Each structure stands twice: as structure tokens, then as C-alpha cells.
Amino acid sequence: YHTGPVVEIDFTEDQEITISLSDRIVVFDMGQLRLYLNINLPALNEPYLNSTTIPNLSGDELDTLGSGDPSRFKRYSFLVNSKHQIYLISAQEKIKFERSSPNGFAVVEIFDMQRALCVIAKYEGHSIDCCDLRQNRLFDRIQFPPSSSPIQFVKCVVEHRMIITKLHDGSLHFHSISCWNEPTFTYRAAL
What is the rounded distance in angstroms from the CA atom of residue 172 to the CA atom of residue 166? Predict the structure, then answer.
């Protein structure tokens, strides 16, 4: 099934299904020895690095990575990234979200699975984008002044709806969302 080296493997909650990433995504039932999905990814001149499975992008119903019916895999979407490219691709191989950067991405991470929010920060950049994958739009942007030190590291603390950013000068900056009805990140503190 894979035509290149596998760079990541994940399991559903029940540990029955593997989801593996190479130059494609393969969803395989180890108990029944059954292939559910074999998704071709866009061809790149660099390897894919990460994949995050989003069980139900529509948000109509709660779905977990380990529940019941095999047809659920048709609702899966996958956020995949290489150093310079990001794609959200459906089980039907449709690209639903795409970003690229000549500098590359330092962070590509799901911030809120239920709301399908993704945090993206470019290497040596001065901003962090939080994108709504369902709507394929910018949800909010955390912007640092161009005169500030570039972003070195970003940590999402999902349970507190918080993003912690470390700049190259060693300073830490804390932003969070207080209320989902007001979808903006509020600056909380700097250390």
C-alpha cells in the first residue's frame, strides 16, 4: 500500500485500526486484515512529516477514532504537512485546505478538534494563524510587532484554550480564548 517510507503511525482508540503516513495515508483494520482507505497525497519534493486525523469535519455528530461502523472512515479528513506545505485532505482525496510557505512551518497543530481549529506558525515569523478548517478561513491571528524577535516555539495548551509562544529573545507570551462566542485570542501575559 505504501510506496514510500512510513513516517508516522497512529491507532484508533480501540487499537484495532492503524492510520499510517508516507506519501499516502493508509487506514487498515489489523483484526480483520482489511484496507479501509488508501489515500494519495499531493506529490511533493520533500517528505510529509505529520498527519492528524479529524474523524468528522462536518461537526454534525460526535465521532471518535474507535467507534463502530466502517463507513465512518468516509467522513475522515487528514491534516498533513511537510516542511513547506499543509493540506487538509478528505477520505475522497479532495483538498479542503492548503497553505504553503517558502520559509517553512515551525508549527502545524490542531488547537481544538471539535471546532476544527488549527494553529500555524512559520519559521522565523512574527505571527501565528489560527485557521478554521471547516470554513477554510482565518479564525484569528496573533501578531507580534515586526521589530520583535521572531517566533522560536509555539505550544498549544488545549485544555486551557491557550497558546504559549517563545520568541528567539527568550521571552514567553501567553494568549488564550476566554469565550468561544468572542473568537479572538486575548493577550494574557509575558515573561
Answer: 5
Q: Are 118 and 131 in contact (CB under 8 A)?
A: yes
Long-range contacts at 179-183 (CB < 8 A, ≥ 24 apart): 180/115, 183/139, 183/140
Tell me how far apart the alpha carbons of residues 106 and 84 are, in angstroms, rounded to a whole number: 10
CA distance 165 to 168: 10
Write down the pTM of the prediction.
0.88
**How does pLDDT run across 133-147, given as a tens digit for each residue?**
999 999 999 999 989
- Residue 58 vs residues 33, 99, 134, 175: alpha-carbon distances, Å: 29, 20, 7, 27
- Please give the distance of CA 40 from its chain centroid, rounded to a whole number: 18
